[in-house]
Amino acid sequence: MITTRIFGHTADGREVLAFTLQDGASHVTVLNLGGTVQSVVVPDKEGATTDVVLGYDNVEGYEKNGGYIGAMVGRFGNRIEKGRLVLEGKEYSLCCNDNGNHLHGGKVGFDKKIWEHTIDGDDLILSYVSPDGEENYPGTLSVQIKYTFKNGELSFFYRATTDKTTVVNLTNHSYFNLNGAGNGTVLDHLLSIKSKMIVPTDETLIPHGGFRMTDQTPFDFSSPKRIGKDIRMDDIDLRRGSGYDHCFVLGKSGRYRKCAEALGDRTGIRMECFTDLSGVQLYSGNFLNIEGKGGHYGKYAGFAFETEMFPNNVNVPEYALWGSSVLKRGQTFTSHTAYKFS
Questions:
Q1: Residue from 134, 261, 272, 306 carrying the catalytic annotation
Q2: Does the active-site annotation cover 173?
Q3: Nearest to 332, CA basis, from 168, 170, 159, 163
Q4: pLDDT of 131-182, one tens digit each?
Q5: Of 104, 171, 191, 236, which one has the fewest beta carbons inside 10 Å?
Q6: In this structure, how many other beta carbons lie within 10 angstroms of the beta carbon of residue 291?
């Protein structure tokens, strides 16, 4: 069952709706502002319901604070070096909004848009048409995301088409704290990731090619490990990210599989992550310092699993072989990511 209510209004007067997807005692709330996951309420080991995603209780919070909290980001999630995009021999200059690079769609990305909505039974479908030239991306991109929440599993089904060759790399940017939003840090969460390599970066978090094996490094999550166990080690990639902010290699895009798992140390809430994309970005909330629902969100107050194709794959042919973000006219981009709670 899905219920709808008015969540509030933007500073310029646009109406923001909240859709609540009910699944027994659990429920998820999604906003048409940025396709944002505003809350995920699930039972802990004692049966008490707990909201496990960071967010805000009002529209003002989402408009005033950065961090892409809970939002859908695009056209291109993660980073593109120096905002440089070359498609079919033509170069496009994208907004450089992060240390001289393009991040999460630019200055006014999908996270700031009001999406159209349709309710189809227990499915919520949000759609947005990004016009040719928006944020200097070529082509009119039509995006549709279907949200489902059944048997404790929150799924995102992505679909996109274009009328001109462009790029697309959509992801959800929810921050999770399985002990409850605002309830301390996630450093004692147990985490595992089915990956043997990361994509190494330069000092501005841009990858240029190649891979780094995770064995015997702070990035080895092949067995469950506390997020905080190695986060302060003297490691060049950790220093550059000020913690974890790295893409873990899962395999070539197209095969849907479990890629990661996390466990709240106090609540016993378990979250499994599934995707058919080539990578998942682990971000440990290294720069959080905001007031949200549930209290203050400081450093490490939440972590993100951003399923994605590799950052900067549009400029690194080696990475595009694992999953290319280039979408041509007549092609349809589809993808499925899910977070399962138990």
A1: 306
A2: yes
A3: 159
A4: 999 999 999 999 999 999 999 999 999 999 999 999 999 999 999 999 999 9
A5: 236
A6: 12
For the record, the structure tokens of 160 come out as 């996109």
Long-range contacts of 25-30 (CB under 8 A, 24+ apart): 25/49, 26/149, 26/152, 26/341, 27/149, 28/147, 28/149, 28/154, 30/124, 30/126, 30/147
Compute the distance between CA of residue 15 and CA of residue 59 in angstroms, rounded to an integer: 10
Hey, what are 232's tokens? Answer: 């302060």
| Domain tally, the chain | 1
Kindly report the CATH number assigned to the domain that includes residue 6.
2.70.98.10
- Give the active site residue among 27, 102, 104, 173: 173
Q: Measuring CA to CA, which residue among 218, 284, 277 is closest to residue 253?
A: 277
In 137-287 the beta strands, taken as DSSP E runs, fall at: 141-150, 153-162, 166-167, 171-172, 190-193, 197-198, 212-213, 225-226, 245-249, 257-263, 270-275, 279-283
Which helix H or strand E contains 63, and what residues bound it?
Answer: helix 59-64
Query: 186 is in which domain, residue-wise?
Result: 2-341
Interatomic CA distance for residues 112 and 115, integer angstroms = 9
Rounded Cα distance between 267 and 275, Å, is 25
Tens digits of residue pLDDT in 231-270: 999 999 999 999 999 999 999 999 999 999 999 999 999 9
For residues 172 and 156, the answer to whether their CB atoms sit within 8 Å is yes
Backbone angles phi, psi at 320, to 5 degrees: -60, -25
The tokens of 141 are what? 């991109």
The answer to whether 306 is a known catalytic residue is yes
* Rounded (to 5) percent helix, strand, coil in the chain: 5, 45, 50
pTM exceeding 0.85: yes
**Rounded-to-integer distance, Cα 84 and Cα 90, Å:** 11
Using DSSP, state whether 106 is helix, strand or coil: coil
Q: How far apart are CA 53 and CA 165, in angstroms?
A: 35
Find out whether 1 and 25 touch, Cβ atoms under 8 Å.
no
212-213, strands of its sheet edge to edge: 212-213, 197-198, 245-249, 279-283, 304-308
